[in-house]
Every structure is written in structure tokens, then in C-alpha cells.
Design brief:
Structural class of chain A: mainly beta
Helix content of chain B: 10-25%
Structural class of chain B: mainly beta
Order of helices and strands of chain A: EEEEEHEEEEEHEEEEHEH
Low-confidence stretches of chain B: 46-51, 58-64
Largest interface: A-B, 39 and 47 residues
Shape of chain B: globular
Largest sheet of chain B: 11 strands, antiparallel
Strand content of chain B: over 45%
Distance between the termini of chain A: 49 Å
Strand content of chain A: over 45%
Shape of chain A: globular
Mean pLDDT of chain B: 84
Helix content of chain A: 10-25%
Low-confidence stretches of chain A: none
Number of helices of chain A: 4
Oligomer: heterodimer
Amino acid sequence: MEANIHGSPSFAYLDIELAPGESVIAESDAMATMSADLDVKARLNGGLFSGLCKKLLGKESLFINEFTNTRGENRRITLAQSNPGDITHMALHSKTICLQPGAYIASTSQIKLGLQWAGFVSGISREGFFRLTVSGEGSVWFGSYGGLIEKEIDGEFIVDTSHLVAYEPQLKLKLQMAGGFFSSIFSGEGLVTRVEGKGKIWLQTRSVSGLVGWLNPKLF
Amino acid sequence: MKIETIHGPGNAAAHVTLENNETLVAEGGAMIAMSTNVSIETTTHQKRKGGIMSGLKRLLGNESFFLNHFTANSDGAVVTVSPTLSGDLKVLKLNNDRIIVQSGSYVACEKSVEMDIGWQGFKSLFAKEGLFWLNLSGQGQVIVNSFGAIYPIDVDGEYIVDTGHIVAFDETLNFSLSKAGKSWISSILGGEGLVCRFKGKGTVWCQSHNASAFGRALGKQLKPIKR
């Protein structure tokens, strides 16, 4: 499999060349173009119960697509996310990564998609009750709205909740107010996430909720 | 005519340098800046007469849209054009070829390029593209735009393009609506639904992103418009 990310950072898309017998799993509706003889199968996103949980509580799709090259030659598929932004590739070696709702784009067939309880506060603040986890051996591609910032955390760090895209599972996340009661409401920062521990996080330089917040007052 | 694109694929624009008496034809609202030695003429595009199809087209397609003709009064005139949405621009060169452009993707072309309103049938509605297409032919350069990056796919046989991702394609190609996989159930459950299946030999230019998918993602969170 050969995968290339083009169009970064504003309109990244993922070109994958599948060798005979290889397959790639992608988020529902991520396919932009593909060879006509690729085999497409819709799969439940990790079993019916887990799939339903992901859809209802984690804001993920109930179904994902598996694209398989059943031919004798290489075949090409191009994937993109719905929002403009960057895409990054991660090679997981028995590692786990937690993804925020909407970040997942595609993975190789050995990668397991799972669910992790994210906490009541996360659910109430509309970040989803569950988090998508990707684990196993292989490649994962996830994306952002805007550019991606990768950051190594050692100790404590504060991020705006709507800008968090992915993080390593050993990190502890706590939702909290940005400052005191007054400044949290009037600073425009609202809820933030306090990240504790040692590991990597990925941030996006724009947030859809920010764009929505800017657009809404202009609609009438 | 020299066309230079800048700032792609994020927020592309094109600087068009005109020699004396050269004319650039652009869709209304595309010009963002120009030198003072350029005269503008606004015309409605005239369609050819006759035929049941062209009558039908007129009936459905609101007859004409406005085009601006930018003509240089002296050498070295510059017109800068850009589309409304973020995304890429691509310059396609016609050399007695015929291409079909999704009408929302057309930005500008040289005057020597012939333009006609085309009709791909009602499948265009289901393909989430405009009902009408531009048939461009002749000699000269054409500027097309996209939501996202533009990449070419060389089709020889069959290739699948998801609905809403077509920018332009060679007339030697033909597309039909079909399912993405072998079964309809899988196509619908998998969220791909209908896709466009291109057949023939030629190039289709695709946009990496789908403006209506982004619109849907945003739309859920936008407040309803009061009427």
C-alpha cells in the first residue's frame, strides 16, 4: 500500500494505491474517487451495539466502508473529509490513539476501532459521551478543520476543547472553566480541557463550532 | 494571454495578463482586481437556436446568464480573477478539444473558446451537480475552480467519482449514476449512496472536497432562518 497526502494544509486529501488483495477502511462518505472495480462493503462500525453507541453517543458513523482490491494490479482510491483542513498519518505499533468525534478518516484492515467512555462532562458539553479509539498494528489517518499541531505534553497543559483532535490514551483529560466564573463566560473561552500526564496531543488551528458561532449572528 | 495561478490549493486566484485587444471572458463577480487599461462589456450568453433540446433547456435553465468580457486597450493589462469559495484553480488548455465543465466550476476563459450550454440529462440532479453544464470547445485556456484541490484522473475503461466531486471532463467520457459497490444495500448503508461511473478514455478533473458535505456538517449547527 502506498499512501500520499496532497493539498495540505488547507485542503488535504489522501491518495491510496492498493496492491492486489489489500484493503482500506474509511469513514462513511470519505470516498471522493476510486477505481471502478474496487470491492466496496459497508460494515458495522465494530458490531451492532458498539456501532449504535458510536453513532448515538460518540457522534461517529454507524457504518464504515471497506474497500478491497480483488484485482491483479494496483488500484487507486482518493479519500477526503467533509471539512477543509489537514490530514496526518500515524503508524500504530500496538499503540492506542483516542480521536475526537469526526477526526477519523481511514485505517488499514488490522486496526481496531473501539469506544472509550469519555465522561459525563464531555457528553454534556457536546463533545460526546464516548471517544473513538484506534489500536493495533497498521496505519491510521485522521484529519482536522484547519491545520494540525502536534504537541508533546509532560505535566499539565490547557487546550480549548473544540480544538482538540486526538490524544494518547495515557493522558488524563479534565473539562474545566477557562478561568474564574466571570472570565470563563466573558472571555469567549468557555470550557477548556486540562490535559495531564505524559504523551502527545493533536490540535486543530480552527474549530467548526467557532465558524458556526461566527456565522449564526449573521443569519436572519 | 498569460495565466498565473497563486495561493492554491487553499485560496487560489489567477493573474491574467492580456496583450492589446485580447479578451478574457469571465463569469459575473469573478474579477477582484484589474489594471485601468481594460474595458468591460457585459453580455448575456447567446445560445444556438433550434432543436427540441435547446427549447427545453431555455425553459428550464432561465435562458441566459451574464458574462463579463475584459478587453485590453494596450499591452500588459492585468485582470485578477477568483471564485467565491475557498479552493483551487486550474488552467485547462484546449487545442481543438471539447470539455464539459460543471457550471459552478467555470471561472473564465479566452474569447476564442466556444461556449455552449450543455445538458447531461436529469441524472445531473441526482449527481448533486447543476442541471446544466458548459460545453467548451475550440482553442484557448480555461480557468476552472473547485472546493478543495483539483486532481486529474485518467480514465481508460471505468472510474468512479462520488457525486459532487466533478469539476470537468473530456467529451470522450460519459458518466452514468450507479452504486459504489456491488450491492445497493452496501452503497446506501456505507453512506456513499449514488456515485458517478465514468466510462471511456479521457481525463476527468475532480475536486478533493465536497462543498455540500461541508454545508451539511455546518447546517446542522446553524440557526434556522426566520421567514
